[in-house]
Amino acid sequence: MTTETMNLTKKQLEDEILKLKKELNAVILAHYYQESEIQDVADFIGDSLELAKKAKTTTADVIVFCGVHFMAETAKILNPEKTVVIPDMQAGCSLSDSCPPDKFAEFRRQHPDHLAITYINCSAEVKALSDIICTSSNAEKLIRQIPESQPILFSPDKNLGRYIAKTTGRDMLIWDGACIVHEAFSEEKILKLKLQHPEAKLIAHPECEEVLLQHADYIGSTSRLLQYVKDDTSSAYIVATEPGIIHQMQKSQPNKTFIAAPAQDDSCACNNCPHMKLNTMEKLYLCMKNLSPQIEMSDDLRLRALAPLEKMLQMS
Ligand code: 13P
Ligand code: SF4
Q1: Residue 9 CA to ligand 1 centre (angstroms)
Q2: Going by CA atoms, what residue is nearest to atom 10 of ligand 1?
Q3: Which domain holds residue 137?
Q4: Centre of ligand 1 from the C-alpha of residue 289, in Å
Q5: What is the pTM of this model?
Q6: Distance between CA atoms of 266 and 186, rounded to whole angstroms?
Q7: In a domain, 52, yes or no
Q8: Per the domain annotation, does 141 fall within a domain?
């Protein structure tokens, strides 16, 4: 806690955030993986696609993005005239980091006849080198619109890529990247949990490894997983994605049981995204108070990254 916030109680911090929101004409957008307190002060909580759409249509002057850097950067690409702040500029993404722009440019050069469909979990530089951006909600829908004869490069998530290749029957060239959180789950411990809770369904994000997805009763993006537990009649679920999502699941279905899927390593909370969890209520308050740190980028980069994002929004 900094000297600027150390005298504030949790309630005062929340009140200050709501007061600043009015003064700044700001909107607080939060991803489902944010800590519960942040989700509770947000105006809108969503998955990557919903947050990008919301960022495009907001009438607020300031977008306070409670998520990771590539998400706030996407909001800025779609809204150059607005101020976009993020509680912690260091909130990155292992998946995005697994795809450096120079290596991705080389990958494209090696396959000049391929169309590059790139998951939104990447930097603005990688977006700018791509043809179409996708999210886990719309990847399948977008790929089904590409003619069969068109070869595809799918980057950077190999697990999502493999899953989509399987569901669409498309033979794609897939970048070798992964998310540290979704690769941390233990198949063995999850199978044990299934035996202990035979009534529980396993629901999983497609960023999980294939070995885990093969046991899943349902696979989907964060918002699809949330919708599934609302529509489905089971009483319990083992949730194989970042456990921040359980806050909204529990709020919407208070009589159901949600069990966070365990990680292989008992010595860490490895199923928690260390990047998402860098954002705290204190940092949220400070970024609004100081209007810093802000996302900034050159017009040239922004316009190149905008084209494949616009294509995604048109196609989804
Ligand atoms: P979605 O919320 O779009 O499913 O993405 C999950 C994720 O890993 C975000 O970083
Ligand atoms: Fe990136 Fe994985 Fe964290 Fe999502 S959960 S922000 S993909 S590291």
Answers
A1: 31
A2: 121
A3: 95-179+303-315
A4: 28
A5: 0.95
A6: 10
A7: yes
A8: yes
